[in-house]
Structures are given as structure tokens and as C-alpha cells.
Automatic annotation (TrEMBL):
GO cellular component terms attached to this protein's record: cytosol
InterPro entries linked: DnaJ_C, DnaJ_subfamily_B, HSP40/DnaJ_pept-bd
Molecular function GO terms recorded: protein-folding chaperone binding; unfolded protein binding
Cross-referenced CDD domains: DnaJ_C
Species annotation: Populus trichocarpa
Presence of keyword Chaperone: yes
Keywords: Chaperone
Residue span, Chaperone DnaJ C-terminal domain: 25-181
GO biological process, one term: protein folding
Keyword flag Chaperone: yes
Protein name: Chaperone DnaJ C-terminal domain-containing protein
Amino acid sequence: MSRISPRSPIIFSQSTLLRKPPPTEKKLECTLEELCYGCVKQIMTSRDVIINGITEQQGEMVNITVKPGWKKGTRITFEGKGDERPGYQPADLIFLIDEKPHLFFEREDDNLVYKAEIPLAQALGGCAISVPLLEGERMSLSFDIVLYPGYVKIIKGQGMPTAKEIGKRGDLRIKFLINFPMSLSPEQRFDASSILKDCSYLDFL
């Protein structure tokens, strides 16, 4: 709770009497790589300014330091750098972080999700896959287990940085999508049924 001392003078200025308009908001698109490792973006902005009572457009370059781990919706505020209107204080300029779609990954909080598609034969008989990493390298993984639809392999520490904990990263979650054959011959269907009829199954319900 704030207090005003009886001896403290109360000073009114023109700026304290002016209302502040809603902020000017702009979208700032970033790649997952930029949000992972950080970067500096130079953005040319334009705003309405009042010069000698006349409203004019004015351009200005602003530098934004994107920090590792920032997420979609992160707000960067430049106070008083928005549009000017007669009778109001200058508006604030706010940039909202937005994530560009990635070729391989989807982001879930601090984790990255990669969807690996494999044919049914490899899901049942074992397989080796090559998984991309955000750094640009690839990781080879081998599986000798049955990979069912929705199976997830977790690679620790290969996700996005945790903004509030320096040095900590989320995980890479590899989700398997199983491609089933479009058709089988009667002989193939009989053989498959004979092989699989006595297997144990997962209950997804």
C-alpha cells in the first residue's frame, strides 16, 4: 500500500493528466532455431507522431534480443514507442512472439515432437531410423521391439531450452505413425491372421 506524506508536495504535470491509449501490437515471427539459441532481430517500424500539431508517419529501427527458451505469446514492450494521438500519452509498442511452422518438429512447452512414419512390417519386425535434431545433425536409432501406433521414444535434453533455468532443456519426443497396407491377397491375410491370432494386445480403451 502506497502512502503520501503530508509534507510531500503533490505535483501535477501535463503528462500525468493525459490518458494512455491501448498499445500498438505487432507480431514477431521466429523460427524454432532462433527461439532455441537466441538471436537479435532488427525491425523497421513506423508510427504516427505529432510534429507542430501535424500527424506524420515516422520510421524507426528497433533491436530485439530474443532469448533462448522464449515461447509463442512472449511480450516485448517498448514504452512510448507506439502511435501518438492528440490529447493522449504516446502508446506503448508491443511485439508478440510467434513461432514459424517447422519442417520436422512441433513444440509442446519445452519439448519438441517429431513424428516418424514407418511401415507395418518394420513396426512388427524391428527397424532403424534416422531422426533429425534441431542443431542440424541426425541421430540413428534402432528398435527390436514392436512399435505400436502412438508409441513414444523420449530423447532427454534434445528439446527447447527452459527460459527460467539456464542450461536445462526439454526432451525430444519421437511419436511413431504406423502405415498399414492398403490391401492384402487372401494368402497374405490368412498368413497374417495365423501369425497374429495368439499375440497379446494393448488395450487402448
